[in-house]
Design brief:
The protein is an all-alpha fold. The chain has 3 domains: 172 residues, MFS general substrate transporter like domains (Growth Hormone, Chain: A); 56 residues, no CATH class; 187 residues, Growth Hormone, Chain: A (Up-down Bundle). 83% of the residues lie in helices and 0% in strands. The radius of gyration is 20 Å and the shape is globular. This is MFS transporter. Its main location: membrane. It is a multi-pass membrane protein. Pfam families: MFS_1.
């Protein structure tokens, strides 16, 4: 059930990208306006994750998973029958918010329902495999559905499945324990967290797309100021959105830093790699996507065995080894630009094999270390680092490329970030359980 929830809320993240040309042709949308179909979905996930984590801890995980899947189903249905851009974008926002609420509730449930090994690492491996399977299935299935049934069925095929999954969550997952005391939702903190994350991610994304324009730089600055105000506010409110005890955890801090660095390396592999393939190897966007597919396949394969590695060797050795190997693989990709395409594919697959153990081990450390009542927030903070790290790193990479930097130089920066995360993980992440 948990793996299915993760799959359903992430399937359309790549499936819709393959349907964009067909959507634009039918609705008469320009490329600039069409891009909002992807952008608003990503913004909704990144912006509402922290709020979703807190609501999960206050309201209950089972109910939130069911409600978020129902919201996802409604958003899919609205997108599938949309007659114009406005209802399509509204449906995408509903899907993004549904995902932002479902992801922390799913990870928190995994840690709470399976507190002991070997099941804890097994379950995190299954959930990670489901998330990666969603990416692969979306990339492949989205194109097939669009070609044979039309772009609307990319949404409509999944909508009834999500609705049934919402009902199944209520039937399959055990009831949430009632909280010892009712705490109010910190509305000011929710506004500051959501607004700050939205501003940082949106501003960084725009900088990556069109360059460092003053308005976009100002948007990032405003977002950072809102996050700074959130820190100030949370120390003074009696029932904070983010409890200080949560962010004082060394396991959480180390996990978030390592995952953010991994996300920056992922952006160097996928985003910069796609541009490299199209520019240097003269591939089309679709062909570049096929060449990059081994990244997702490698992550899927390695997630399946990550639990065994974590139980045998521990999280810190697994994470540091995987980060180091990923940095080396990305560096080889960088210096191999222009070499035989098969060599590049092998390096990409090698990098993908490092991704599964990183996600499984860090999720286990971050979420499992939090108190049961705070696991939704810990999951949300962990997942938000991938959106912030990805958006900021993409902005940096594309700014470097527009300034004349070579693809190799840009990807080497990503490799250096991953290598630096090896040191921070060794210094911050405690050894052992």
């Amino acid at each position: 059930m948990l793996a299915g929830a993760m799959f359903l809320v992430l399937f359309d993240s790549l499936a819709v990208a393959t349907a964009l040309p067909a959507i634009g042709a039918e609705l008469g949308l320009s490329t600039a306006r069409l891009q909002w179909v992807i952008t608003l979905y990503s913004l909704s996930i990144g912006g509402f994750l922290v709020l979703g984590g807190r609501v999960c801890d206050l309201w209950g995980r089972r109910r939130l998973i069911a409600a978020s899947l129902a919201l996802t189903a409604a958003g899919l249905l609205l997108s599938g029958v949309a007659s114009g851009l406005a209802p399509l974008l509204l449906g995408r926002v509903m899907q993004g918010v549904g995902a932002a609420f479902a992801i922390p509730a799913t990870l928190a449930s995994a840690a709470t329902l399976f507190p002991d090994e070997p099941w804890r690492s097994r379950v995190f491996a299954i959930v990670a495999a489901a998330a990666n399977t969603a990416g692969v299935a979306g990339a492949v299935g989205g194109g097939l559905v669009t070609s044979y049934l039309g772009w609307r069925w990319v949404f409509l095929v999944v909508a009834p499945v999500a609705a049934l999954a919402a009902l199944a969550a209520l039937l399959v997952l055990p009831p949430d324990r009632p909280p010892s005391r009712r705490e109010p939702l910190d509305l000011v903190g929710a506004v500051l967290a959501t607004g700050g994350l939205l501003a940082v991610i949106f501003g960084a994304s725009r900088i990556g797309e069109v360059g460092p324009r003053p308005v976009d730089v100002a948007t990032v600055v405003v977002g950072l100021l809102m996050i700074g105000a959130l820190v100030w506010w949370e120390r003074r409110v009696p029932y904070p959105l983010i409890k200080p005890a949560v962010v004082r955890s060394r396991r959480l801090v180390a996990s978030c830093l390592a995952f953010g660095a991994h996300s920056a390396a992922y952006a160097a592999v996928v985003v910069v790699g796609s541009l490299l393939l199209q520019d240097t190897y003269r591939l089309s966007a679709a062909q570049a996507g096929l060449v990059l597919a081994p990244v997702l396949l490698g992550a899927l394969a390695s997630a399946a065995v990550a639990g065994v590695l974590v139980r045998r060797y521990g999280s810190r050795p697994v994470v540091t080894t995987a980060l180091l190997l990923g940095a080396v693989a990305l560096a080889v990709v960088a210096v191999s630009a222009g070499a035989a395409l098969w060599l590049l594919v092998v390096c990409l697959a090698a990098w993908g094999l490092t991704a599964g153990p990183i996600y499984v081990a860090l999720t286990r450390e971050c979420v499992g270390d939090a108190a049961p009542a705070d696991r939704g927030m810990a999951s949300a903070l962990f997942e938000s680092t991938t959106h912030i790290g990805g958006a900021v790193s993409i902005a940096v990479y594309l700014t470097m490329l527009s300034a004349g930097a070579a693809y190799a130089t840009t990807q080497l920066v990503g490799a250096a970030v991953a290598a630096a995360a090896v040191l921070t993980t060794l210094l911050v992440l405690p050894l052992g359980d």
